[in-house]
């Protein structure tokens, strides 16, 4: 697994059904290293601390491989890295093979896979199409949230080296499917 793009979002106010909503989902690639801190990525806007950021969701990684699936469903969307709200666009991140607790070194940081990303209406706002939320739920292409065990800079080209494996724990995809069932979404 290699970082293809590091992405940061600025605070943005948008109109959502007649009310102002603040979001950081409009992430764009940056050319300099980014600092992974204990509760977030330095300089990255997190507007909804209940669902993003914090110890267990400090960094969000998403697979570049998944872009192709959604490009077919949304051919008119500009698929700039970071479109899914990810801090790290990773060449081949597979939620069906990464278990909760698996730990990796990447750049100067050490990251532990914690939970899946559950989509919300802000993903629909980013795509300018609310269908993306259900389409996202109906896959296991949820991405991975990471806890930062050792803070540090990461940059494009840095590789994830696994240093701890937890096959006894559920995969990130398993957690996502369980959440989908709990919420009553069907495929």
Automatic annotation (TrEMBL):
UniProt-recorded name of the protein: MOSC domain-containing protein
Lineage: Bacteria, Pseudomonadati, Bacteroidota, Flavobacteriia, Flavobacteriales
UniProt signal peptide: none
Pfam families (alphabetical): MOSC (PF03473)
Superkingdom of this protein's organism: Bacteria
GO molecular-function terms, A-Z: catalytic activity; molybdenum ion binding; pyridoxal phosphate binding
Residue ranges of domain MOSC in the record: 28-163
InterPro entries the UniProt entry points to: Benzoxazolinone_Detox_Enz (IPR052353), MoCF_Sase_C (IPR005302), Pyrv_Knase-like_insert_dom_sf (IPR011037)
